[in-house]
Amino acid sequence: MGIFISVGKITECVIIALAFGVLLTLSSKKLLGALQGCNYRSDKLMRWAAKRSNMSFERLLLLGMLCLLSSAIVSLCFSFAGEWAAVIGLAPFIVFFVVYIYADGKIALRVPAVRTKRFKRLQGVLFVVCTVFSYFAATLLNYAAAQWGAQLFNVLRYCALAFLPLLLIPLICLSNELAKIYEVPHNRTYIEKATKKLASSDITVVGITGSYGKTSTKNILTAMLQKKYRVLSTPRSHNTPIGIALAVNANDLKDYDIFIAEMGARHVGDIAELCAICPPDYSVITGICAQHLKTFESLENIVKAKGEILSATRKKAYIAADSSEYFANCPCPFEVCSCVSDVVAESSGTTFTLTLGGESVRVKTRLLGAHCAYNIGLAAQLAYDLGVSIADIAAAAEGLGFVEHRLQLTKANGINIIDDGYNANVKGARAALEVLRTFEGRKIIVTPGIVELGILEEDENRQFGELLSGLDLVILVGDTLVTPVKEGYLSAGGPPEKLIVRETLKDAQRELKNYLSKGDTVLFLNDLPDIY
């Protein structure tokens, strides 16, 4: 009889553990998305979750408290059922977890989670970890009830499982570290596969790096080279070893003539690592500024890191004019972009003169801002050297569409909306403000400031705030950098009544609904990812 009861208790604990494994895993969707945004860094997730505005711990605490109280009440009401009262008392857990999962799904991440294979594997590991942890917790409670023998404790024993939601974030971090046992060597093998695939191919490789303008220049160059070649380029802003490997391994390189790889960096050595995967025949360096200074620590390190592409370039490099001073001792043949002149930036687009091979043509692009003309010129010089005619280059430039989240203009109900959400550098912020001022009507900006500037963060954001003076409405979002931006704005004489601080982007959008009218232009500058 004792053995039968023991087996029954084990079965009971297994069923309970599986149920909690499912509920906890389903409750973790937003947290896993934030972890993905943190590049699967557990320490970054903990810092993100600790932010007051996210209320992650608070919401999980509320879930735990509701489960505890309701479970205790139900268990006591069914105390006449003996040991089964504790099991019946688990019903409220299901109700409140379902409510939590539904409510959590309504709070969307600014950068939605992408259900990659790694994401799905992590979910699987999390389910196992949560299930195992729940099993031991349930077993321990049953053991304690058997040893203690108190009737009241036996009835309420499963109420203590209400502490499980409070451990969800640590359990996610634990699962993430366990998953890395597989992920790290798997990624290394995947990258090695891409490296060998490129090495055995005769495809021409173009590498593009810089502090800003990488994605835009990549898209521009792709459009130009497609006039003559079959072109493969890394999608969106994929500029890491895995991002490049994904593009290479997912395609048959025999179907393409040129591969354009965007190369990003946060530390010295990152570009060299990317160049080891795909050594560039031609390289492009866009603008240089103090971006990601928090990890680079100095502008000198930024220049050193970006310059690593020059040492790996096999044929020729193309360098933006305003970055050429940093690379005077370029180790490979190079050319400084000087083919653009007479730039006119308006709200309807940008017009400029393009001169290649002694021939000039006037070009009109719908892209906004004078800086886009120089990105086009940089790409045009390389495309021209690779045999694309100036007529085709101009046609490609005139047919360019907006790059997503980079001064992307849309119109709604007579209101101009400029989405510059991926702009997170000082020079880009100034360029975006210049674009905003080309529009007629009232001008509004929504921004949290500029991040990852290290020791320069406060000073640069204060200077940025000074530039906002004169706008019709300034809405600062969050608590990360609001104070120095606000100080700069007020010190420059910005009217206090035209400055509003809101905790979240949604709050700012609600504010705009009551303010905007036909003819207004609103700039969303640097929509920070959730990790900030």
- The CATH architecture assignment of the largest domain turns out to be 3-Layer(aba) Sandwich
Q: What's the total number of strands?
A: 15
Residues in helix, %: 40-55%
CATH level-four homologous superfamily name of the largest domain: Mur-like, catalytic domain
Contiguous runs where pLDDT drops below 50 for at least 5 residues: 1-5, 528-532
Describe the structure.
- With 532 residues, the chain is an alpha/beta fold.
- The protein has three domains: 2-183, no CATH class; 201-398, Mur-like, catalytic domain (UDP-N-acetylmuramoyl-L-alanine:D-glutamate ligase), CATH 3.40.1190; 408-525, Protein-Tyrosine Phosphatase, Chain A (Alpha-Beta Complex), CATH 3.90.190.20.
- 51% of the residues lie in helices and 14% in strands.
- It contains 20 helices and 15 strands.
- It has helices at residues 2-26, 29-37, 42-50, 56-77, 84-88, 91-106, 117-148, 151-156, 168-199, 214-225, 241-249, 270-277, 293-296, 299-312, 370-385, 390-398, 426-436, 457-467, 482-491, 505-513, and strands at 204-209, 231-233, 258-262, 282-285, 316-319, 334-336, 340-346, 349-356, 359-365, 408-412, 415-420, 443-447, 473-477, 499-502, 521-525.
- The strands form three sheets. It has a six-stranded parallel β-sheet, with helices on both faces. Strands 10-11-15-12-13-14 form a six-stranded mixed β-sheet. A three-stranded antiparallel β-sheet has the order 7-8-9, covered by helices on one side.
- Strand 2, helix 11 and strand 3 form a beta-alpha-beta unit.
- Helix 1 (2-26) runs antiparallel to helix 7 (117-148) and helix 7 (117-148) packs antiparallel against helix 9.
- The protein starts with a helix and ends in a 7-residue tail after the last strand.
